[in-house]
């Protein structure tokens, strides 16, 4: 069975920029999974530090209202991997999931770490590149012209173990 992971679509991230296009694509993928009665699992990052935009007791840690009506399950995490010290593995086993689709924020951290961790646990993984987003840019990494989504997608694609698609390819394939 397939399942969709929607990673860290929370107020504290979405408010950092204009992510309308990414959220629109995430919603289309979510609706596809809903129509097929396949699980939609939201991952929520919670930080202990009050200064964090994802502070566990602040509004920033709440799921963004644009997609908050969709989760079948919500898993809370405190590291970039949705698997590390969470109930995600046991939930996926219970649901008999063998193929995970990755969308959400931040492309180069939580989405990438979770995709690799899923592969390491034996899942087939599909990373929908343009249905991920990041608050970072080329200046963050001091790498002029860096397209973070494209870079991460290329690295994962070259691994030959994680399928990387853009939304149009996802629509054609699945």
UniProtKB/TrEMBL annotation:
Q: Where is the Isochorismatase-like domain?
A: 3-156
Pfam families given in the database record? Isochorismatase
Hydrolase among keywords? yes
* InterPro entries (alphabetical): Isochorismatase-like_dom, Isochorismatase-like_hydrls, Isochorismatase-like_sf
Q: Which keywords accompany this UniProt record?
A: Hydrolase
Which molecular function term from Gene Ontology is one that the record holds? hydrolase activity
Superkingdom of the source species? Bacteria
Q: Which family does it belong to?
A: Belongs to the isochorismatase family.
Q: What is this protein called?
A: Isochorismatase
